[in-house]
Amino acid sequence: MTSTVIQRKWHTTAEVAEMLGYGLSKTKMLVITGEIRSIKDGRNRRILPRYVDEYIERRAQEAEQGWSA
Fold first, then answer.
1. 47 in helix, strand or coil?
2. Cα(69)–Cα(32) distance, integer angstroms
3. What does the alpha-carbon distance between residue 47 and residue 36 come to, in Å, rounded to a whole number?
4. Per residue in 28-51, pLDDT tens?
5. Which of 4, 15, 31, 55 is the most exposed place for a label (fewest CB within 10 A)?
6. Which 3 state secondary structure label does DSSP give 46?
7. What is the rounded distance in angstroms from the CA atom of residue 61 to the CA atom of residue 39?
């Protein structure tokens, strides 16, 4: 018998907060301001894994530019 692993297609704001090590309020603010992109799903916001990756990459680039200045 073969078992199938279902991978999450999106995350809640709370899950992203935990992934990033941020508080829920800070993460919600990042979503509201558009720093982390999200999708409206009914009354909830969902964040695609690639949106989290984009945010992390952007923050890393900002940090690297700050060091080279």
1. strand
2. 30
3. 8
4. 999 999 999 999 999 999 999 999
5. 4
6. strand
7. 24
